Amino acid sequence: MRPFFAALTARGRPFLAARNQDLVVDTTFKRNNIVEMRTDLELAHHSLLRAFHNPQDPALDARGGFGIAGRTAAKVGTRPDHLDFHAVSGPGGGMYASQAGPGQNTTFSFKALVPGLLLYHCGTPDVSVHIANGMFGMILVQPDVSLPPVDEEFYVMQSELYTIWPIHTTGNQIFDGQKLLAMTPTYFVFNGAFKGLTGAHQLTAQVNQTIRIYFVDAGPDFISSFHIIGEIFNRVWQYGDLSDPPLHGVQTVLVPPGGCVVVDLTLVYPANYVLVDHAIYHAVDMGAMGILHVTGPTNSTIFKAGA
């Protein structure tokens, strides 16, 4: 992502706004001043994708920061850029008003009219290429009546990566535009990496806690069937709609590309629960997988192995 995305993403959570809050988007294009950062994003062990990202936007950690793991290097560019905010009610979601070329600064304002969890992404052609390189983020417009309190919150973004070489290839991967056109991704990822929410980046919680997951499918092409193996969502705000009452007792939620969902679940038994895209090949073999590590006392009235 470009550095000006950082203005709309607070460290450790989506950008937060109140309903009807007036917001100002100030886009400063500084690529001629060598501010754009190139990140070698770690897809899997010994496999990197060289792409453009904002180091403060979603990558490897679902809580406590959205920092991208990898090396950064400066790059000078000449093309103009602009952003599409799904939270904007106005021309192009702010795309045209936010367009800035080298050395330019643009400003526009909008009112956050509709509460919900909403995507923003690069709107510069070719949009799909930019989204496939990680140029996106989330905005949370809070409802008038706050959501029920929870013990922990996590932020998860699913997307696809299209690379020249097959999955698990070591060394530097390179973006493949032909695979994008053919809609044949190499990886499905959570927060920018193959099985990105596992190991050191797994989610952690405790028995009897209620957690909330803000989930976005940035695409650019595929629906996510978001599911946690061994758990059921207590509350689901489908499509990121925070105005209407949530659904209850949902096993799997469909999230379209460019869509969002907010889910709550109460943890009643210690285990490693697996976050997946339940188009299961996308998870097990292609990488849309994470671990929710829950610790605490067992309860044989809820679950008991054996007789």
Please specify the SSE layout and strand pairing.
Blueprint lengths: L14 E4 L3 E7 L8 E8 L2 E6 L19 E3 L8 E3 L9 H4 L6 E7 L4 E7 L4 H6 L3 E7 L9 E10 L9 E3 L3 H6 L4 E4 L12 E4 L3 E10 L4 E6 L3 E5 L9 E4 L1 E4 L3 E8 L4 E7 L3 H4 L4 E7 L12
Parallel strand pairs: 1-9, 4-11, 10-14, 13-21
Antiparallel strand pairs: 2-7, 3-4, 3-5, 6-8, 8-9, 10-12, 14-19, 15-18, 15-20, 16-17, 16-19, 20-21
Folded structure, characterized:
- This protein has 2 domains: 3-142, Immunoglobulin-like, CATH 2.60.40.420; 152-295, Immunoglobulin-like, CATH 2.60.40.420.
- Helix content is 7%, strand content 40%.
- It has 4 helices and 21 strands.
- With 307 residues, the chain is mostly beta strands.
- The strands form 5 sheets. The chain has a 6-stranded mixed β-sheet with strand order 12-10-14-19-16-17, with no helix packed on it.
- A hairpin with a 2-residue loop joins β3 (37-44) and β4 (47-52).
- The protein has helices at residues 95-98, 127-132, 177-182, 281-284; strands at 15-18, 22-28, 37-44, 47-52, 72-74, 83-85, 105-111, 116-122, 136-142, 152-161, 171-173, 187-190, 203-206, 210-219, 224-229, 233-237, 247-250, 252-255, 259-266, 271-277, 289-295.
